[in-house]
Task: inverse folding
């Protein structure tokens, strides 16, 4: 009878010929331990995974212990063999040619490590057969299973390992870290290069990669005369130096191996090179206000239709307002003045680092201020406002206005992420009604219509009446 909570009592048995067998039975609680064979209950989901893996054979089960169950609480015997399998997966991740050779890399376990595992072995059935040679044979069997299993896998070796556990994508990798250094106003950023050679052994919580400063990792590899480790360390750094002048300068000056204090200009130069660094195989960790796709930056915000116009229809004149915001909050005149005086790079505004491009910001402001002046003189129609919201930046310019047309051309060349055209409260309500008529207050056709409308017809009538009151035209047609 299986425990209703899915608990299973699991242990590993070693045969006289050095073969592993998984023994299982119903669990009776997390404290149930059989001191004779090291059996102990494992939660339902984990026990199901482990049993399914060993059903494919002992090498598959052993590999799965190290690759998948890295953060699972396991009985003593399973924990012992997981340590052996974890060593294998860690060594695989550190191999620089793993992808090129499709996982078929020669890896042998460390003799001292095998002797330590034998010495640490818990009481278990077949424990008298546990030797250094037995562990080495089991290690090779798990490695051979990995090679054969990857050969059948359609994706990359990295994707295969990631499918076992995402943490393996970070083991054996070189990391470049950029962090804020708030204690030094002249050097407000800190840089550090690290290497992850293994994952934590805290099995009661999520496993995480263990970072070692790159300089220390290099010393360890040289001391151990570990050529594979040296290649794993230096290959991504070499590729990054070929693609990035900044990294090349750090390598030439032998500074890549030491913690560095950086100015905001140095940090900005580094942030600008993230795409080429990541393409080189380096994992980059930066503050969360910066990413490859966007950064915290001031934004020219144009708001149209904040208030209801005095008239209705496509020719109704809407209000038009231009300001500069940071994360949705308007900047003061003094803050904006300081930004326009700054050079390109990073600037500290309201205690937050933001990306600044003074020339671009000034060009956008000039363009929209000219448009704002034209709107105050001639007005902005509903149709022109809709064109603005649809992305036609020149919607507010007047034909024949050479200065505005020149500014339109200039503004169009700018990155749109530095500017935004938004609908004010009144126009936003109109836009929601256009897109989602179901949200409009229900309106009836009146007593003149002697018929019972279906639900979708009632929505259509409401929408048509709403358009009529706004002075807008509309077409309601069958979707056929």
Result:
């Amino acid at each position: 009878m299986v425990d209703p909570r899915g608990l299973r009592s699991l242990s590993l048995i070693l045969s006289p010929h050095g073969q592993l067998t998984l023994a299982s039975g119903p669990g009776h609680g997390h404290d149930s331990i059989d001191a004779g064979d090291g059996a102990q209950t494992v939660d339902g989901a984990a026990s199901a995974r482990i049993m399914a893996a060993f059903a494919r054979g002992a090498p598959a089960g052993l590999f799965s212990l190290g690759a998948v169950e890295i953060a699972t609480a396991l009985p003593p015997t399973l924990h012992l063999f997981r340590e052996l399998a974890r060593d294998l997966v860690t060594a695989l991740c550190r191999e620089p040619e793993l992808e090129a050779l499709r996982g078929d890399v020669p890896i042998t376990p460390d003799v001292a490590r095998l002797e330590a595992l034998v010495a640490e072995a818990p009481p278990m059935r077949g424990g008298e057969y546990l030797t250094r040679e037995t562990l080495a044979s089991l290690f090779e069997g798990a490695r051979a299973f990995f090679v054969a299993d990857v050969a059948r896998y359609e994706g990359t070796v990295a994707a295969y390992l990631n499918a076992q556990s995402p943490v393996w994508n970070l083991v054996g990798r070189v990391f470049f870290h950029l962090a804020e250094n708030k204690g030094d106003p002249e050097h407000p950023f800190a840089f550090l290069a690290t290497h992850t050679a293994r994952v934590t052994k805290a099995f009661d919580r999520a496993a995480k990669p263990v970072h070692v400063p790159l300089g220390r990792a290099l010393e360890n590899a040289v001391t151990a005369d570990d050529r594979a480790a040296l290649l794993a360390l230096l290959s991504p750094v070499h590729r990054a130096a070929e693609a990035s002048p900044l990294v090349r300068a750090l390598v030439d000056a032998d500074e890549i191996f030491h913690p560095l204090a950086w100015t905001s200009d140095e940090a900005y130069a580094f942030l600008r090179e993230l795409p080429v660094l990541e393409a080189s195989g380096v994992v980059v960790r930066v503050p969360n206000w910066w990413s490859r796709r966007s950064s915290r930056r001031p934004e020219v915000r144009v708001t149209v239709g904040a208030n209801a116009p005095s008239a209705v229809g496509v020719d109704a004149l809407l209000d038009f307002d231009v300001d500069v915001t940071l994360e949705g909050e308007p900047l003061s005149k003094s803050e904006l003045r300081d930004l326009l005086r700054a050079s390109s790079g990073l600037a500290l505004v309201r205690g937050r680092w933001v990306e600044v491009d003074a020339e671009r910001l000034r060009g956008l402001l000039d363009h929209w201020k000219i448009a704002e002046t034209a709107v105050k003189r001639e007005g902005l129609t509903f149709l022109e406002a809709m064109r603005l919201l649809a992305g036609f930046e020149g919607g507010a310019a007047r034909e024949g206005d050479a200065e505005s047309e020149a500014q339109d051309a200039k503004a169009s060349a700018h990155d749109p992420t530095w500017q935004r055209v938004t609908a004010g409260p009144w126009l936003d309500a109109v836009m929601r009604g256009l897109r989602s008529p179901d949200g409009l207050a229900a309106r009836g056709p009146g007593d003149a219509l002697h018929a019972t409308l279906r639900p979708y017809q009632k929505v259509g009538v409401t929408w048509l009446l709403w358009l009529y009151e706004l002075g807008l035209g509309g077409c309601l047609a069958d979707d056929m």
Remarks:
- The first helix runs from residue 44 to 55.
